[in-house]
# Entry
Amino acid sequence: MPCKLNVAALAALSLLSACGGGDHRPPDKPRLHASIARTSFGIPHIQAANEEGLGYGIGYAYAEDNFCLLASEVATVNGERSRHFGPDGATSDNPELVVSNLDSDFFFRQWNDDESVATAWAAQPAEVQALMRGYVAGVNRYLAQHGAAGLPQACRNGSWVRPLTERDVIRLMRRITMTTTAWIGDIATTQPPGAASATRAPARKRLAPRITASNAVAVGADASAHGGGLLLGQPHLPWDEAQRFYQLHLTIPGKMDVMGATLPGLPAVAIGFTPQFAWTHTTDTAAHATVYALKLDPADPTRYLVDGQSRPLRRRTISVPVKLADGSLGTRSRTLYSTEDGPLISSGETLAWTGTTAYVLRDANAVNHRAVAQWYRMNVARSLAELKEANLQLAGNPWNNTIAVDRAGTTLMMDVTPVANLPDDVLAGCLVPELAHLADGGLFVLDGSRAACAWRDEPGAPQAGTVPTRRLPLLERRDYVQNANDSAWLSNPAAPLTGFSPLVSRDGVPQGARTRLALTALQARLRDSKLTADDLRAMALDDKVYLAELVLPDVRAWCGTAAVTAALRSGCAALSSWSGDAGYDANAGLPYLAAMLGEGPAQESAWLVPFDPRDPVNTPRALNYRDADVAQALAASLTRKVREFDAAGIAANAKLGDFQVSRRGGTTLPIHGGPGELGIFNTIDVADEARGGRFEVTGGTSYVQVVELGGGGPRAQALLAYSQSSDPASPHHLDQTRRFAQRQWVTLPFTAAEIAADPALRRQELKE
# Structure
């Protein structure tokens, strides 16, 4: 559909189509046809005879719940936020970095340029193009029916509202797949030394490719009480518009029957289950991007040297329309720089463009056009073996592990994604020495002055410069596999995955607290009995704090030492009386401990028993609070946190349910859970600053599902923590959030009989 088609024209076109105008098909053979059955909590079950009809139903259902969200996202990925919302507003793709509308626009106009989008569209299989065409038609039908004046309040008569196009869907896909989320501001503001045409991007807490998280556990026949498969999937993503999950059930009779959740603009199930298997994803640790340090030509800081040969940086002058203070439209322009590897970046003092050095980011996902095709192939897979083979063939999943299980009780963990390919000896010789330590956090800074440090092409790889899929981590077991955002190494300690390039997966390194919690809980349960779906639901939402059991006795002992001053007595009192979990009765001791361990002593000095790769689940342990430096760091971090709470007017003995909340749709709801770095499966992130004596939830547990597979078909319970609809006027804006706050799971109807029996069932037929 042409991009310039206005709403009135679109409405007229829809009416003509409904009356048969412009289409000579018999009335009983519409071009597009989808059936939508809505069950409790507004979950749509969409059925169609083909992919285009299915996409049509997906787009229409999604628009009913989230049209304004989608319109805002389309403005973002097209680089049009400044035009409609002004240049100074803030947009964010992760909770640690806020980017202005203007910087976001410059980034996306470079990232989603016409050539890249056209190439990505042409790369889509016919079935995926049909899904996308149908999705566009469904969204546009909703818009034609309501008109700009009949939309929800958030976008009613908005200047940014227009019919959707297939190219918009491609741009949304490219936003989901990119590894560069954390670098948006750095790329958009990078200018030659001395240039004053752009402001420097805000600093973030750490340099890292992505800041997302998840938990996953797949239990097989040898460890499940019923002898079939069990799956827990628990992504931790922001609670705002970016990457917001949406529940749905998709059926093409004889070809597809899949239920779960998807992301804005993605016409497929990204995390879910079929009658045969269930799967989820967790953010992996592999290097989908690397940074190259360029040696600049002494004669010109916009040229660089490779093996002594001078090359010019590529320049692209980008103009962004900007809404000015008086409402008129102006233009801002910047020249952004790149090489054949990717865009230049500059981040603080660590990666600064100086007179001698510049830095460029190569992201494998910049040319990974296979993401939607990957999820489509998983949606139509008839077995776990087909799901595995689809991943090995495409490697289109951009930055996720896949954890899955089938009804026969075979579990699968695979980290099959586009990963930078360099032999170990070359990698070691190419790391920039003074920045080599960043590799521990997943950021590899390579010498860009030598052609020998370029990514290597190799047969069996799905795209140039990446690792062949058969050399990526994969584990199949009959007991269990798990991942909580550490490397693939300890997916199951009985079969450690070792020997991979550090670009792929590292072994012999300390594990995160959520990984240690998962492994400890699984091993303890399996010593006494086998696992049930109830066990996985409890693991997801029981708010157990792994590090509280590990260090709270030591922290309380430290509170009794002379190193603790009178100013810290309220903090120590909170830690002494804290329940040790992240439930509603927890007090300020929960965030106090998070601050002490997150901002306090360095890893190597904090523990009396250091990390031992021979015992990675139980080490490190025993807080080394008698060490003077450790004690000083604990005191400093606790002091900062106590002062923060005092300034916000939150008493140390206040309950978590009073100061950790979600305020949406005019309703304030207490939210349980806490910082994931403490080892809490129910990770909940909050704003840095309190407002009105309360901290607003910004992210964490989003879509969580527990699926039981066996002879009786799939039995699934789930929760969408922020509910289906972003529209405050919708009855499905807060209904699941209330259930999440009360730890009340939602049973998902899957079979035709279960859907028909749902008390809230309503059906509609879409044809045109």
User: Anything to note?
Assistant: Residues 51-77 form the longest helix (27 residues).
